[in-house]
Amino acid sequence: MLDNMEVLELLCRADRELGRLDMFSGYVPNIDMFISMHVLKEATQSSRIEGTQTNIREALLDKEDLPPEYRDDWDEVQNYIRALHTAIVDLQTLPFSSRLIRNTHKILLKGVRGKHKSPGEFRKSQNWIGGSNLKNAVFIPPVHSSVGELMSDLKKFIHNESIYFPELLRIALVHYQFETIHPFLDGNGRVGRLLITLYLVSRGILKNPVLYLSDFFEHNRNHYYDKLTQVRVNDDISGWFKFFLSGIIETAQNGIKTFDSILQLQKSTDASIQTLGSRAASAQKVMMSLYIKPITNAAKVAVTAGISQATAYKLIVSLEHLGILNETTGGLRGRTYEFTNYLKLFSE
What we know:
The chain is mainly alpha-helical. The protein contains 15 helices and 3 strands.
């Protein structure tokens, strides 16, 4: 596959765009503040591939503010966020390993659908993909008794430095192999997609976790499944590599555009806030919180800015007049406000 000129050309482009994204993210002040929304988008899109319906706006709300029938999906998205954050921290002391993968899976399934399917443990029974049973399954992963050995081989491949293999092709192959092994009874797709970002961070390819492919996979879901299947059926690894690298290129380019748009929005918003005079300092505190979670209410504004709720309402009115906040509920009580221009950058 390394003599396939299409793959090599895409690999060069993907390396270049990923480098640009990494460099650009290094210039963004308070990058962690903005990463939280990237993670939220990844969580909703990766979970959506598996059938959940929570969107970004719903994921930003408190659980009690959602109808009961939406809360299970909300929980799954929140678990995905916690799993990623925990894994990023664990990478500081743990290698990219089966232990890291199992820990991530355990958090992902805690207290949600799949909680009875051995969270954090490799499967001890046969599973399948598609269909209602083994007879009509679309794909049957390897027998459960081989999972431990297969995952051990995968770990060895990840850390094999004796044979040159481009890093982006390595993680593309790791993702394919992981999904083929399907080591858990549930949650394999979400864990497999998480591994891409974790690998790039663990190898120092990205200084910050700023690239997430689930949005690309979701928008190209049929192609995603088809390319994985074609490797298994027709040994078309080049087709999978080309699809994966195209995803890296598109996602990195979109990431750069998003960060640039964030910086431009922040600049214009800061300029608007300075017109508020004595209330500018309180408004700035509120804005810092809105870049992390762009939906709020008067009570949260009061706590964030350290002001009374009555003063918070006045500040909200000022931010509405500046076009920064928009009221979304339409009611007289329990009003919710969103930083619409910022939210649009992640939900369009």
